[in-house]
Structure formats: structure tokens, C-alpha cells
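Extended Data, panel c. Modelled sequence:
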Amino acid sequence: MNFDIKTYLSKNTNAAPLAVFRIVFGIMMCFSMIRFWYHGWIETLYIQPKFHFSYYGFEWVKPLGGYTYLLFIICGVSALFVAFGLKYRLAIITFFLSFTYIELMDKTTYLNHYYFVSLLSFLMIFLPANAHFSVDNILRKKTFEKVPKWTIDSVKLLLGIVYFYAGLAKINSDWLFKAMPLKIWLPSKYDLPLIGDTLMHQNWFHFAMSWSGMFYDLTIPFLLLYRRTRVFAFVLVLIFHVFTRILFPIGMFPFIMIVSTLIFFDANLHIKIIGFLKRIFKNRAANPTMNIKSSYNYQFKKPVTRLLILFFIVQLLFPFRYLLYPNELFWTEEGFRFSWRVMLMEKKGISTFKIANAETGDFFYVDNKDFLTSFQEKQMSFQPDFILEYAHYLGDHFKSQGHENVQVFVESHVALNGRLSQLFIDKNVDLYREKESLKPKYWILPFKDEIKGL
């Protein structure tokens, strides 16, 4: 059966799933901002540190001091506006910009689901998520029963990429044949009720979790797409994400993925959800005469569809950029971020920095606690781009203090997935003279083992 792109792009479907997705997304994001504030993380992660690690090309993005709280307020309020569908286009653009700025303020806080939220909110800018059951409908006295089918399918596709690529990343020898790093992590959960003592120390359970996690990620998008397996797949989604939330401190990610997968269900479920919400709010809001339109029509259909096609091409190719680098991915982490490699490594390091005078040979060692928080030091100790950026910060700092002919060296030892630690960085290389770039970092020493896989 031939696929006709023009025919596909002209198909319409019920608008209810996109409306429900908008509501749950906005509520979850607003709650996330409140949760961040409540736990005091704005202060500890963005206000207190003397130094912040930057993403390459985004060094200009920095915390805003006390105004960082205002940034979180803007992000949370815009998320609430998205949920209500109030000034939706402005709200989702504001949310995307504010949330992405928060994500870029400090590389130390990188998580896959932050990246996912940025991508998803960017995608939603171009989707008519306020076409149905929104405050915008009330203000304009106009609602749409249908939206282009591809608008809902685009959300499904992004979710499918996240899951499937996470599954591909698990096809490696450490994960499948050594049960690493689950073999390290799971025994620490011995205090869990019922299963702690009986399962968490069992070797077979570590392998069962590794293999089932790989199969789950690879198959769940397809099981959700197929109507006959959809309910079963959603039960798996619930079990998998609730269990991982119990085992690991991964924040809101499990709940975001659970509610997001609702979009795979037929419109009947979403119509019932909207009907339930209407019954709740029927006595709290006016019920104006609504002009019901059949289908939502894009004013700039061609530019939008072309932009989103390009967007998805990038999403499909970008995770494979690690192939451009010659060394072991898990060791150098060149091309590791933004590629849906979720919880694949247990990596720890110790990095000691030496400040030297190039002419006299005099030197002294740095106490990292004088410049970094414990969380920053932990992340810096085993990630090469962190080490390089910190070396430049130290060099600039001591140069400003009057030191001359400054050189910065590091002695770094790193352990990966249960292996013995080994020297990580060439300790004879002056990192203060090295510049960050997309080129391979020759000063990372070779990995003394091999991890086979994708």
C-alpha cells in the first residue's frame, strides 16, 4: 500500500486527545516548577554556587541572581496558561523559552527528561492544542471538533523516538551481559518492603531487569500504537515507571511519561475525560454560545509541516553523532548527552587540579570545595567537558589574583560500571591552553576495556 504524504497531511481526527494532552502537560509542568521551589533547589542549584557549568555555545546563559525566582514564576504561570488554553500560543512560547533557559543555566543539572520537555514544548508551539476545550475557545466563541491527524501523530512520534532510542542504547555488552550498572544500584535498595531482601541481591534479578528494560523500551511504542495491545501496553507503562520511580530518584520523569502515553488512546477516552471536566466546571464558568467549526485549518501549513519534518530528521539523526568520535562513548561522553541514553552508567571520579607557574615550576593544589558545591564537584570529576571548563575557570581566577604564567593540570581517576579506576586525563597537558570545541579531546586517555553495542 503506497503512502501518499499529501493525502496523509489532509486527514483530520478528533481534537479531544490533543486537548487532554495540553491539559495534563500544563498541569504537570506547573507542578514541577512548584516542586522545584518547594524543595529549595532554586537556591541550592542556581543561587548559591559561585560558578556554573555552561553548555557549549550557550555560555551566555547564566542564572539571574534573585530574578531566577521570577523566571520560575513565569515558567510555572505560563504552564498553567497552557493547561487552561488561555492565550495558548503566547503561553507555550513563553514556557518553552523560560523552561529551556532554566535547563541551560547549569549543565550540572542535565537530565534527559528536561531535554524531552524542551523538545515537546517546542513541538507544541506549532500544534493547535487550544483548538478544543480551551479558554481561548470561550474568548473567541469558536471551537473546533477536529484537528489535522499529523498534529497528534507528531507527539506520538516524539514519544516513540524517546522510548525506542533508549532501548537501542541498552543494546550494549555492559547492560545485557554484565547487568551493569543495575548490579551496583539494585542491592542498595535492600530496605524496600517485600522485595528488598528477596530480590535486590539476586544476580538473576539484575539480568532480568536489564533485559526486560531493553525489550520494554524497544517495543512499547509499537504496543501502544496497536489497538489490541494498547491497554496491555499502558499497564506495562504504569508498572515500569512506578517501579523505576520507587527504585531511583528520577523526579517527575515517570509521571510525565505515564500521562503522555494517554495520547495513544482513541478519542473516546479523551472525550470522556473532557466530559468529566465539563461536569466539574459547569457551575463555575459561563456557557457562551459557541460557534462549532468542523476542522482546524492551518494558515501557514506548508512552512509548519516542513519545519517539523526537519525537526524530526534532526531528532532521528542527532543521537548518532557519537559515531563521529573515535573513542569509547561511555568513557569520553562525546555525543552522550541529548541521545536518550538513560541511566546506563555508574561513573565516579576524583579530579585534583594543580596550578603551576610555567617559568618557575612552582605549583600548588586546589581544594575544589572552595569553588564548587559537592554536587558540582561530583559531576565535574568524571566528565571531560566539565573538567576543561573548570580548569579555565581556575586559570582565570588565579590569573586575576596576580599569579603569572598560569598553567592548569589535573590528575583524574575514573571508575566506570564497576571496573577499577584508571587515569582519565593526560596529567601532562595544560588544560588552560586547550579550547572547548566539537573535535575529539585528545587529552582523554584511552579506555582500557571495550563496551560493545550501539
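The two ends are 32 Å apart (CA to CA). This feature is highlighted in the accompanying rendering.
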